[in-house]
Fold each of these.
Amino acid sequence: MGAGGQMNVSKTEKDVLKRVPVSKTPFGLADLKKAIPPHCFRRSLIRSFASLFRDLIIIYTLFYIASNYIPLLPKALTYVAWPLYWFVQGTILFGFWLLGHDCGHHAFSEYQWVDDAVGFFIHTVTLTPYFSFKYSHRNHHAHTNSMEYDEVYVPKRKADTFYTEILNNGPGNVFTVILRVTLGYPLYLLFNIYGRDYGSFSNHFWPQSGIFNDSERGQVVLSDVGIMAVLYAFYRIVVTEGAKMTFFLYGMPLLVMGGFFIILTYLNHTHPSIAHYDSTEWDWIRGALSTIDRDYGTLFNWAFHDANPNHVIHHLFPTIPLYHASEARDAVKPILGDYYKFDDTPMLKALWRDTKECIYVESDESCEVKGVYWYYK
């Protein structure tokens, strides 16, 4: 049981790892939409801003306590207090970040300008270029689990021996997890690591990057200006408060937030039981259903606004706000049947298992359909 309500609880490891169907679905998006109560598609300014202010109040309270009281503790206690602050603040910051992500999907309010204004604020103060991420993430939703066109967590092929041979062992798995959790998020933004190969240097800050089209490049510049303003504010804080205090109060929580971004997005899109498709087999609805709902318990689900146990419905209907997602998910699950994938494996256990089991993808030699790709190790 999580904050999102009763889930489709997995009974055995075999059930969890059972492959999802890859045949064309017997239902369409319209069938799923009819099953969802109409109010689930309505976005409330009051409820959305209540979520925003909830996070802002918690973030400020944690910051106030940390900045005013942790320095007064005996030195031995600070070795516990600071990491606790980093973890809790980073957790809440990721939930806060998720509200900005919802703004990018026009799931915060009925007004696009409100969504963009709020999303720009949230993502900019968490050092994410709002419009740049909005557009790359749109591409991800448009091409989920496409071998050629998906935007993030594009799987490696067996021919990539650096991953399939050099890193395909215990030490390699450990290195992969550590790199992913600590630096994965900034590396994704700066170098498009885990992303699609555009044939040239691509990142989320370069307006001429292949990620963006000509109509989007001006807003990429606006995103960059926002990031530079926040970085300048951090510089002024370093001058007045010192580098160590600035890093402890701001830097470490943002690194924790980035770690959660990588862990949760990786686990929502990587699993031994889901398939990827090349252009001969891919279609939008099977791609959207090649995602996984995860339940990490009441506290994490609450902190993350129930995003992780509602990722499948988010890919099907991304404008549904987070506070209606659980109801919408439960409404379509009977129609989805075996096409719906849920895994309640604890977060760290799932991260380690899927890192070990999901090294590369290849088509199943025993299957006549060659455009479907499964994870192997």
Amino acid sequence: MTQKIPELQCPDGNKLISPINSPLDEDSQKVKLKKELGLLEGVAIILGIIFGSGIFITPKGIIQEVDSVGFSLVVWVLCGFLSMIGALCYAELGTAIPKSGGDYAYIYECFGPLPAFLYLWAANLIFVPTTNAIMGLTFAKYVIQPFFIKCDVPTPSVTLVAIVTICFLTFLNGYNVKATTKMQNIFMFSKVGALVLVIVVGIVWMCLGHTENFHNAFEGTTENPGKIAKAFYSGIFSYSGWNYLNFMTEELKNPFVNLPRAIYISIPLVTLIYVLANMAYLSVLTPDAMMASDAIAVTFGDYVMGKYAVVIPILVAISAFGGLSVHIMASSRMLFVGARNGHFPECLAHINVKTFTPLPSLIFLNLLSLVMLVSSDIHQLITYCTIVESFFVMLSVAGLLYLRWKQPELPRPIKVNIIVPIVFVIICLFLIVMPCLEAPFEVGMGVLITLSGIPAYYIGVKWTDKPSAFAQIMKKFTTISQKLLLAAPEE
């Protein structure tokens, strides 16, 4: 997996060059990603990913697991708390290890190359493309839903729209980072606007006296710890994204200041909006109505907004579209850093000199995301990807504790109280162990796919004296990627 490949150059000068031995950076002789992200862009990236599709689909997953209105709201508050303490830990990690790649970089620094490779392997085979698929499917369902009011939305239509959306946003992210981030800034306000509209309508509805859904709010609450853990996974998925700015630390201006500020602004705002939005949903829809709906925000609008309900799916579609765009951009940097370290084929560490984007990584993740669209069951996909991701997030925070012990003198511009990472690790352990009883298949598949990375690591990375046949296969893949990447767009 460390096959060297030559410089790629078009006759028109549009190049794709490895970040090794390039003349474009006089100090390090490497092509580098530009520092184009300020505080506003950092907040937009975090909010853009978090305010993606989760809040419009996971309320159904939570309510059907906990069986009560009151405890579902408790789950939303606790998931916000968990995200906040996790984000505090990542603020320390991101400023102590100021490298792009997020969890991959932290696990690599703390525990070495094999665990880091397993994270990269699991991320690119499970939770990154799965999350892209979930966001693409959510966007597609909300776009198509208004055309099928009295019947079920055709699954092939949803899948086709999701495919087109993922491919288009991959192209857009490869074309220009600056243009993409400007678009995401605009979409951030559209997403907040969609949720504010839901909240305002819900508050007005409750002020008119419609509070009957909150009577005996905790009646029927499940006592099954496995079901509670699965409910938390749905909530955690809605909050997922609070650590994605850490994937782009090298592109963030003044990261020691802007990284923690972006986190401190984003997470409390998200928690407040999520809790209020769920109160709005629950004030209008009964738990049974929520569980029967595939597009909760659309059902909510149909109940209370009449002919103006068409605004809801438009705003939700914009939210999912923008969230998917941010997720594609941020996750490609993680793959780029892994390839740069020799853990994936080196062609994935190339940067287009015209656009300064990691085009090969974007294309590779695009293909894997399309594969994940074979399943259209969003809630199964959520459980499947969140269990594996939660393990590696826990491992990253455990790395913070390890560094405190092994490298106490390491400069830490931000240093959280030691209780914070300890509490986070304990909660993650509960959330990882309990679902084994309720979702053994999903857990087992996640473990198997992750462990399959061990032979891949020793064959692809550690085994340096590979036979010539393997080198020829890699050369063919390199030739194919050259032909594809030489068609890269001009600015």
Amino acid sequence: MGGDHKEGVQEVEWRIKVEEDNETLKRALVGCMWAVTAGVVLKLCKFVKKAWELGVNDPRKFIHCLKVGVALSSVSLFYYLKPLYDGVGGNAMWAIMTVVVVFEYTAGATICKTVNRICGTSLAGFLAIGVHWVASRAGDQLEPVIVGVSLFLLASAATFSRFIPTIKARFDYGALIFILTFSLVSVSGYRVDELLVMAQYRMSTILIGSSLCIIVSMILCPVWAGQELYVLVTGNLDKLANSLQGCVTQYFDCTEAPEAENEEETRKQLLGYKCVLSSKATEESMANLARWEPAHGRFNFRHPWSQYVKIGASMRSCASCIDALIGCINSDNETSDDMKRNMSSISMKVGTNSARVIRELATTIRNMKKSSKVDILVTEMNSAAQELRNFLNSYPNMLSPSSQNNAKDTQTEAASSSDDDDDVAAKREIPLIEIIQVVTVASLLIETVTRVEGIVEAVEELSDLAKFQPPLCVKSKQHTTDNKFSPIQQKDDEAMRTLQIV
């Protein structure tokens, strides 16, 4: 009896232990499931938050989604309504496919892809029908040979055309559609008797989808590629000016330390030139798409969009110089504080005047009015650069061979020289390694002035091509000439007034 009692106790203990292990395993599995679910929900919430912020920052993207939905809902009526479905046959799906493929964010991109699709489809369809007609007259044996050879030649030629820069920039999608359409029509025409009817239905549905895309894209809150390019160029000019002035101020003006709150904003302004360096592809793409757009807003038909690309190239040339300038400033080489202090006022003047010129150019493009201040600001910028150049030319370079050979003579004459000569001798003892950084910064500033002049020339060319409005000073000059007062008489009158006041 005792042995049976012990076996019963052990069996009960084993059952209790197994049940406890099972409950622990269940709890662990439930905990893991809750952890995985919570992680997925957390990631989903972060994704929704980022998507919401993206839509809030640029509501046009949310509007674009609605426009695509409106276009697809409208073109799907050709399936839902029987009269429309009977008019296009079973090829209504091509209209829906056209909307999905062609509809883009900007109106220029939509028009570009629409025109490319229509032209590519039409040309390929006519050629395919012509080849099918010729092949059908040649007999059953030569028909597949003619179709295959024509497919090889035309597809190869169209593919090679996509490597040509002009065609790739404007008609790359059209060449792709040409290859696709010609292949489908020519190959399917070998087994289909009513090829002309099929091509007619498909062409009509593509025209319907393309027309609907253009109408929706240009009527419902249009996003113009030209406007995007215009805003991008003017914004990059402001960023370039802020970066130039910020890096010069940071290097030469050490009196005021930036506050902790404004430190992040200052750093963003300082690195704004990087947006200019990375905007080449966007500018070229926007300029190509803007050519397809009709006149809109302040932009007339055949607006010189290519000139904005030239302005961007001039800005990148200046931004690369600023990049080298910031790299030189952040180097670990020691700098002579005396020379840096002597050059600070002139260098900051050069940087400030250059930034003023760039900001004035941004204002000129933004207002589409020729500025009367640009010439004055450019003159001040060049005069400041000339002052800096004269300072570098007049600063003594004591590491030349003649100065080293005459080092003993200067030491013997030091006792009898004046205090000014002592200062010059002290300057001559500065090592080259201590002045090379500040001299390099000054030379880069002078080079930046030259590249800013390139931006000025590009903007002036844009103002002439786009026919910007004349500055207000022209009207004032016309007003003075109408009153028959010459400039000499005006100067005499001003001089007389000053004498009367004195």
Amino acid sequence: MKRQSFPAVLLPLLLLKSKLNIHLFRILIKRQYDHKVFNGPIHHHMELHPLLVKITDTPQFQRLRHIKQLGGTYLVYPGTSHNRFEHSLGVAYLAGCLVKVLHDNQPKLNISEQDLLCVQIAGLCHDLGHSPFSHVFDGLVIPEVQKIKQSKGKHEQMSVQMFDDIVKRLKAENEDVLKEHGLDDEDVIFIKELIEGAKTSEWTYKGRDADKSFLYEIVANKQNGIDVDKWDYSARDCHHLGIRNSFDHQRLLKFARVCKVNGRNHICFRDKEADNVYDMFRTRYTLHRQAYQHKICNIIEDIKACFDDNNKSSILPSDEIFEQISSSTSDNLKESRDILNKIVRRKLPKFVGEARLTEKNISKVVDLDHGMKEQNPIENVYFYSKRKPNEASAIKDYQLSSLLPKRFNEELVRVYYKRTDGNKEEMKKVEEAEKCFQIWCASNFELH
């Protein structure tokens, strides 16, 4: 019989006879088999902690396999069939990478294994609360449901509720599941706070003390919008859309550092990375302009949200609602079936035109910005220098490119002609609508 071979790195352990080393060997072997490696096109090999694997194996998390990351954008860009499941794995992985960089470069931060695990879990679970078609329901349907149920519907808050359900499910199977991985009830509170992000300057959070406030900026950064959630979807969405991504999150990761600014510990970056940070915000704008709020994507998603109030209270937990409604024979769903049938057959309203608004008193349809409305988002990012790595401040104007835009948001009005087919009579009406729109633009915006 051929002798079984072992990895060379384990041979010294096999030669040791003490009970202690045998115990350590068993721990290493157990860890090798408990950790799971996920492979993907963006981050390649992602190793996740056993507790994260247990979370991914719950029905609440598996549901994310059936929710497309970009909702109705798939009906315009066929490559965007990726889902919330793989995005969540990516965010968990990047969250772990960032915590490890900070821990290795700054041991005095006293980042514990529990801190690392909690941040990774928050990254994994941050999108649990997404409804079918992702942000379509956030912006259009959930507000209507709130009118009926008078309940809060923001997806972060729903993610927290879903995470509570997962914890209950895991504890029902094993009451000590958290304790076995070094976590307790305070850590559960911490994870839920991380999912929602720290929104106030006054420290009111219970999961960790203010000296670890920087951990609250990793998954959902409410201070300046630089977080691993944005890093993952920027890379992932650009990849599937075929849009060039000029932002290098791997490089920025290497220059992350915690500095105390205005009495609070913040994640800061090297001053020479200012252009890279701006590219991140610019990429966000590009994704919104070319994909998320594409003229056809918008109208498809608006149409998708046109289900009557009787159906909104019984929304299915995933994108399968599309097929369920399409195949239903219920009289109550006839109007919804007709709407979805028009989408599939591309019988969509005809795009007439769009104009960038210059006056605040005109109702807008589409709002595009770099992440912080009209404000330059980079003003809220802190940078340190090579000579003073422990001191950080906002970037100076003269340190930024003079080619940056004067405005960081724009408001668009879009006009569509509602039609069901492309017969000659309707096409003439579309042409007339386009002429009327041009006249309106000229009179309102002094266009010639």
